[in-house]
Structures are given as C-alpha cells and as structure tokens.
Amino acid sequence: EKGGYDHFMLKEIYEQPSVIKDTYRGRLHANEGLIKMAGIEDNLQKFLNADRILIIACGTSWHAGLVAEYIFEEFARIPVEVEYASEFRYRNPIIRPTDVVIAISQSGETADTLAAIKLAKEQGAFVFGVCNVVGSSISRETHAGAYTHAGPEIGVASTKAFTTQITVLTLIALRLAQAKGTMNNSDFHRYLQELELIPEKVAEALETNLVAQTIAAVYKDAPNALYLGRGYNFPVALEGALKLKEISYIHAEGYPAAEMKHGPIALIDEHMPVFIIAPQQEHYDKIVSNIQEIKSRSGKIIAVVTKGDTQVKALADHVIEIPATSDALSPLLTTIPLQLLSYHIAVMRECNVDQPRNLAKSVTVE
Ligand code: F6R
Predict the structure, then answer these.
(1) Is this complex scored with an ipTM above 0.95?
(2) At 253, which helix (H) or strand (E)?
(3) Where is the active site (predicted)?
(4) Measured at the alpha carbon of residue 339, what is the angle toward residues 206 and 86, in degrees to the nearest 5?
C-alpha cells in the first residue's frame, strides 16, 4: 500500500510529478493557449467583477493561499486577502456581495474553514472551493469549485496536496489574467508552457533526495531552525518550517528574509541552521545580502538554489540545486527539497512520520 516506500509521506512526496499532471490534465492546453476549468467558466463574471478575493484556509492550505495571493495579484491584478479561517469566522469580518471567497482544504472537512464558508455565504459572497476530497463537506457547501486531483493523502503532513493546490490556483489566476487582459498574450503562452514542464522539473527536484539526506544527518539534533524566503517563496519558508516542526518536533520558524533584521537575527549563532530559499529570481541580490548577514553571525546556511548558481554557493554551508523556472512557479520546485529534508530528519529522529503526535489528518473540531 505504501508502494515500496517506507512511509506514506515519502510515497506522496514522490507522487508529485504525476499528481500535478493529473491536476492540470484536461484544464491546461498549452499548445492551443487555453485553460478550461468548468467551475471558473461557469462563474467567470463573478470573478471578473470581484472587488477582491478573500482566501480562507488553515495550516498548509493557508500557505498555499499565501502563494496564491502573490500570483493572483501579479497575474490578474485583483486585490487578495488571505486569512486563517479560525480568525475570519470569529472577528466579524467585512464581507461584501462583490467579494469572491476561495476556501482551500485538502480534506474538505476542516471545521473552522467550513464555518467560515457558511458565514461568507450568509453575507452574500460567492464561495469557491479548492478541495482534494471529492464529495467532502466543503466541496458540497461551496457554490462552485475545482478539485485538486492529488489522490488520497494519508500522511498527516500535507505534501502533494500543497503543490496541487498551488497548481489549481495558478491555473485560475492565469485564466482570470487572460480574461481581464492583465497579462499579455506572449507571457500567457509562456506560463502555460512553463507550467506544463513543472512535473518533469519536480521529478528533477526529487533527485536532491540523497543530498537532503546528507544534510539531514548534519542537522537532525538541532533544537531550532529558521526558514527564510522572499516573494513567492516567503510562504514556502513558512511551509518548510511547519513541515519540520510537525513531524520532527524541532522548533522552527519561517520568516520573510528581510524581516530577520527586525528581531530574529538575534537568534543566530553557530548552532542555528538557517534554511534559505534562494533561487535565481527577482531580488536575488537582496537574498544574497541576507545570507551574508547570517554568515557574519556564524549561522549555518542551507540554501535551495537554481542549478548553476555560484554566488550563494560560495557563501552557503550546503546547497540543494533545483531546476530553473519562472519566479511565480518556483514554489512548486523549492518546496520539494524542504519536504525531503523534514522527512529525513524525522526518520533519523525516529519520529512517527506518518502519524505525528497530537495531530489528526482532518481537524473536524474547533
Ligand atoms: C500540515 C497539515 C495541516 C492542514 C490543515 C488544514 O501538514 O496537514 O496544517 O493543512 O489542518 O487541513 P485541510 O487542508 O484539510 O483543510
């Protein structure tokens, strides 16, 4: 049932090239320059008329929402707010009939997300679901939606659900950008082609497994860890930290790299591993200077870089190389080695990877 893997989590990490393809199958038509998603086409006017998009979710799904915020705003120029479902539902939020709410949930059963959806509906918003489990409560409660076709996710730590959520949300953002005319035609075509290449690039990113294992052996006993990223990869830093803490019980925090100097840099010493997501992208020079700041305080630097990188490589203690892609799609690749690192660290610490203590696969209580 684990398909020859030691754990469901590892199996699910390795399924990502194929499930990302399943997620865009029938939707992404790169050669024709088309994106076809019934849930979007049927409700296109609602999206086009939206004054803003509110994204509500919990945990890893909330991190996918943060990635989507950057993508929607960049591609479709629609203002986006991302909120924890638990905060949204209890704080008397402003919801207008011109709001489109996107609820993201792997299980489709998360109690807080479900309650937030009901609240948004009561106030007249149009609610669109991004779920993995077909027929789940959230998929039934929403007005329309798009499934991530990730297949059953058994490991409690969410992996393939995250990358397929980002895939679906990217498709939606691209379709809206096309309809709104906020992206020129050649960029649109370029993104479709880039997206189609993602599964094979994820497969390439999975080849970092041995490097990840070697690095895991060095840092498995660290009591703390920091994860840093900028732009599209800031949420990946949050997700990297969550993955580490939930399965290995190492205290980890994710930050936007530039926030370091506003406090967390005080934590840096020779015992602190700092995982930095530093692909060749916009503001690369900024992340290089962030790395220099950490290095000058003796922090240990483990960097996820684009293949062929030299600048970060010269500074870092360890590098993990991933293929190049466009900035907006990079989270689909940078996430992979961080999943592998957490997995190996947890295994080396003899933790129950698939069923970490105190956690349940779907959180149906408040
Ligand atoms: C983290 C994890 C949780 C879930 C969260 C939301 O690995 O699994 O943080 O992401 O409980 O669950 P769903 O997406 O089912 O609503």
Answers:
(1) yes
(2) strand 251-256
(3) 361 (for fru-6p isomerization activity)
(4) 140
- Which two structure tokens, joined as six digits, stand for 120? 């948004």
Contact yes or no for 56/110 (Cβ under 8 A):
no
Ligand 1 contacts CB of residue 158 (under 6 A): yes
DSSP code of residue 30: T
Does ligand 1 lie within 6 Å of residue 363's CB atom?
yes
Full-model pTM? 0.97
Distance CA 58, CA 264 (A): 24
> Distance between CA 319 and CA 316 in Å, rounded?
7
Cα-to-centroid distance, 60 and ligand 1 (Å) = 5
> Please, which residues bridge with residue 29 across strands?
34
Span from the CA of 296 to the centroid of ligand 1 (angstroms): 37
d(CA 210, CA 320): 10
Helix (H) / strand (E) element for 65: namely helix 59-76
pLDDT digits (tens, 9 = 90+) for 34-45: 999 999 999 999
Could you confirm whether 21 is annotated as catalytic?
A: no
